[in-house]
Design goal:
heterodimer; A: about 425 residues; alpha/beta; TIM Barrel; eight-stranded parallel β-barrel; globular; B: about 450 residues; Fumarate Reductase Iron-sulfur Protein, Chain B, domain 2; FAD/NAD(P)-binding domain; 4Fe4S_Fe-S-bd (chain A); EC 1.3.1.1 (chain A)
Chain lengths: ~425, ~450
């Protein structure tokens, strides 16, 4: 049985599944239930300054995108940081941490971009015994209009500055949570590192309007006929998050920096993928909000079983293993040639591959008598669209051509050596081989 | 004296009104909107979809299912009605398991097709329940067409002709329109007087007059119709019934299954409808199943379908056979009736085992007797009183692909015409196609 214990920034937790700072972690009651259900750690719902707390809207805070059977694929929210008094949150955090010393408890913080504000709150957070802090530089709605959240996360200089204050006034690990609402996520990540951050966590939510009500012409969630962009999360955002994580993991300025992966983690497999791209652990929110805290049990069992099958004894055995395989397009091997192959035994004759290829791609699938669909190798560019639209898993596969074979599309012999765009004769900037 | 199912003879009220209501409720209850959305989502939107090819009326099934999926059941209904104006009834009675759903690629993949019939019902119900008729008539052409028989073929033909601007008079032999939709389908497939409501809805197109109690041989002649109208469409069905060739076939208690089915559909109170304690149905088609299942649902204690060949040769689909056995009907195959015993009324039926190996039916000489106080004959219907002068083919009116008969100006379709399965959906297709040919011929 694989050991799921993770050590992230020196913070130990029995598994790599933490609940992200969000509604599920807003109070003691929820967090105790989460720990009882098996979550390895919790990032407490973001704390604000002492004094009168923020207020939330009194209408819908969430909007959703659905797949088949109303399966929730994407969730959007316009909720702000905790709307409970700072003292209450701090007292609860201290009690919970004392009762669950083996679980990670992180305080998420968002106060104004002023040194005094940070200097004031950090000692109070430290007193709770929390294992570390996460700086909320990500929330894209509401707080950003007041110069906090993603308004900070979009300015690398601010990130560096605030991170530096936190490292100065707080002696436990500092995690910087990044917004995806930015052109190049490597810049804020590098700023966090320069400021002395121990880790980054990403992604926070993405600016979004989930739907427009076509009767009222209001964006949703709609508050009295008006809508405001919210933060998008859930399974739909996972590909965006994976890409951003990978960029930080492989960038020179940030390589090796610990990452806590966030963004649509719903199953053990999602978690394993984030970790393979360099995340030491993952944070989850939408899956818990959709299915309840119990969903972590599948994640724990699934990850453990997969690690056993692969022979990984600890999560550190596979963290980052996929990072070396993330590269730039220009380094992809242009001598790699594949052809789609349709298994006639598995084909159910729906013809989706044919429609997709014939109408929108390369006219590389032939349809013949009896609804037989076959690939025309002379036309196939191995784009994979047929694989993607085929409803039967593994019915269509991409088969690599072997060196020495002639590609019937180009008439050229498949070469055994690696050659990419930087070496290609069509590239005006190509370096001719010596 | 024993009551209920155990009461001997042919008696009414074997089951309570509550049980009867439950027994005769919708066989395939309508979808709720979310069920429809989930079912619709299973459709793969196949290229050149096999379900469309398998549909005798060629409904664009993937398109209408996608319209349901995107929240437009009324648009879906329009797609259906464009091809099949009786799409509401076909959604209920089509043997989808041998048509569209058999061809569905998810049947190939998982043995669980997209439930096309129920989705079609969802779409068509939406529009029909709202009383919306989505078609309007073209400018009047001044042409008149006589349609003989207000069954599925006649109604489909009349609607299409009316839509194209022609005036149509339907001559219907019975007092009520609908044909087999009204008289020949198991009650649990057409609940709440659906057939009647559908005819009313269809007639909203306008330009169609129905004259009931009006039939060939009863005041009407084909030559008279040809003189009075610009074209004639015959959809007179099969009103003859094959005779049972067995000793004692004339005893009391022996009936045609189609009459029982019609009586049941028209019965105001099922508890007042008598049924035997021991019922034997002779035949192997849909009619046999409808009669047997409904006998059982009315409270008969023992119901047996006796068919002379093997299961595979039965006209009833696998689904229908399974339905029968699930309701407690016993299906005996390779038996044929040789004698009915009883003093005046039938008490027992004597069946002889047969061998049908290699296709030819041979009696084995071994017989068995079953208790039977009611015997229903469901051994096929025949064309009766075909007008003189029409060429026949295999006992039916010979027609071309578009329904033309051997007589100029006369078309025919539905069960009375050659070609096609005797299904509602086939009749609709034949009526529709004949209407288009009539239109082209009149306007050409």
């Amino acid at each position: 049985m694989a050991d799921l214990t993770t050590n992230f920034l020196g913070i130990s937790s029995p598994n790599p599944f933490w609940l992200a700072s969000a509604p599920p972690t807003d109070k003691e009651y929820n967090v105790r239930r989460a720990f009882e259900a098996g979550w390895g750690g919790v990032v407490w719902k973001t704390l604000g300054e002492a004094g009168p707390p923020v207020v939330n809207v009194n209408g819908p805070r969430y909007g959703a995108i659905y797949g088949a059977d109303r399966r929730l694929l994407g969730l959007n929210n316009i909720e702000l940081i905790t709307d409970r008094p700072l003292e209450v949150n701090l007292e609860e955090m201290a009690r919970v941490k004392a009762d669950y010393p083996d679980r990670a408890l992180i305080a998420s913080i968002m106060v104004p971009c002023e040194e005094a504000a940070w200097k004031a709150i950090l000692p109070r957070v430290a007193e709770t015994g929390a294992d570390g802090i996460e700086l909320n530089f990500g929330c894209p709605h509401g707080m950003s209009e007041r110069g906090m959240g993603s308004a900070v996360g979009q300015v690398p200089e601010y990130i560096e500055m605030v991170t530096r204050w936190c490292k100065q006034y707080y002696d436990r690990p500092v995690i910087v949570k990044l917004t995806p609402n930015i052109t190049d996520v490597r810049k804020p990540a590098a700023a966090a590192r320069n400021g002395g951050a121990d880790a980054v966590s990403l992604i926070n939510t993405i600016n979004s309007i989930t739907t427009v009500n076509l009767d009222t012409m209001s964006p949703e969630p709609s508050i009295d006929g008006k809508g405001s962009h919210g933060g998008y999360c859930g399974p739909a955002v996972k590909p965006i998050a994976l890409s951003m994580v990978s960029e930080i993991a492989r960038a020179q300025e940030t390589a090796g920096m610990p990452i806590s992966g966030i963004g649509g983690v719903t199953t053990w497999r999602d978690a394993a993928e984030f970790m393979a791209l360099g995340c030491g652990n993952v944070q989850v929110c939408t899956a818990a909000m959709t299915y309840g805290f119990k969903v972590v049990q599948e994640m724990i069992a699934g990850l453990s079983q997969w690690m056993d099958e692969k022979g990984y004894e600890s999560t550190s055995d596979f963290v980052g293993m996929a990072v070396p395989n993330v590269t730039d397009w220009q380094y992809l091997n242009l001598n790699y040639v594949a052809k789609a192959k349709i298994s006639q035994d598995d084909c159910i004759k729906c013809g989706r591959c044919y429609a997709a290829c014939e109408d929108t791609s390369h006219q590389a699938i032939a349809m013949s008598e009896g609804r037989v669909f076959e690939v025309i190798d002379e036309e196939c560019v191995a784009c994979n669209l047929c694989v993607d639209v085929c409803p039967v898993e593994n019915c269509i596969t991409m088969v690599q051509m072997q060196p020495g074979e002639v590609d019937p599309r180009t008439g050229e012999t498949v070469q055994p050596d690696y050659a990419n765009w930087t070496m290609h004769p069509n590239n005006p900037a190509a370096q001719a081989a010596e | 004296m024993a009551k209920g199912q155990m009461a001997s003879g042919i008696v009414a009220g074997r089951l309570s009104a509550d049980v009867l209501a439950e027994n005769f409720s919708d066989l395939h209850p309508p979808y709720a909107p979310h069920e429809a959305a989930v079912a619709a989502d299973r459709c793969y939107f196949c290229h050149d979809a096999p379900c469309v090819t398998a549909c005798p009326t060629s409904i664009d099934i993937p398109l209408f299912i996608r319209q349901i999926q995107t929240g437009h059941p009324a648009g879906a209904a329009r797609t259906i009605f464009d091809q099949n104006i009786l799409g509401g009834m076909c959604a209920r009675v089509c043997p989808t398991e041998t048509l569209c759903e058999e061809a569905c690629v998810r049947e190939t993949a998982e043995g669980k097709p997209v439930e096309i019939g129920r989705l079609q019902r969802y779409a068509t119900d939406t529009v029909m329940a709202a009383g919306v008729h989505p078609f309007t008539r073209a400018e009047p052409t001044g042409k008149t067409v006589a349609v003989v028989g207000a069954g599925p073929a006649g109604l489909a033909c009349a609607h299409r002709l009316a839509m194209l601007g022609h005036d149509v008079v339907i001559h219907e032999a019975r007092a009520k329109s609908g044909g087999l939709n009204e008289f020949g389908i198991a009650a649990y497939k057409s609940t709440q007087n659906f057939a009647e409501a559908e005819v009313r809805w269809l007639l909203q197109i306008g330009g169609i007059t129905i004259e009931t109690d009006s039939a060939l041989g009863r005041g009407l002649t084909l030559s008279g119709l040809r003189d009075a109208y610009d074209a004639v469409f015959l959809s007179i069905g099969l009103t003859g019934v094959n005779a049972l060739r067995a000793e004692g076939a004339d005893k009391d208690g022996v009936r045609d299954a189609v009459d029982f089915i019609a009586d049941l559909r028209q019965a105001g109170d099922l508890a007042a409808l008598p049924v035997g304690r021991n019922v034997v149905v002779i035949g192997g088609g849909m009619t046999a199943v409808d009669a047997a299942v409904q006998s059982k649902l009315l409270g008969a204690e023992n119901v047996t379908i006796a068919y002379r060949r093997d299961q595979d040769a039965m006209g009833a689909s696998r689904f229908e056979r399974d339905l029968a056995t699930s309701k407690g009907v016993r299906i005996m195959t390779n038996v044929q009736p040789v004698a009915l015993h009883g003093n005046g009324a039938v008490r027992e039926i004597e069946l002889e085992y047969t061998s049908s190996e290699g296709g030819s039916l041979k009696p084995t000489g071994e017989t068995v007797r079953l208790a039977a106080d009611q015997v229903y004959k469901a051994i096929g219907q025949t064309l009766e009183n075909a007008p003189d002068g029409l060429n026949l083919d295999g006992g039916k009116i010979a027609v071309s692909d578009t329904g033309r008969t051997s007589v100029t100006g006369v078309w025919a379709g539905g069960d009375c015409a050659s070609g096609g399965d005797d299904l509602t959906v086939t009749a609709v297709a034949e009526g529709r196609d004949a209407a288009m040919d009539i239109h082209n011929s009149l306007m050409g």
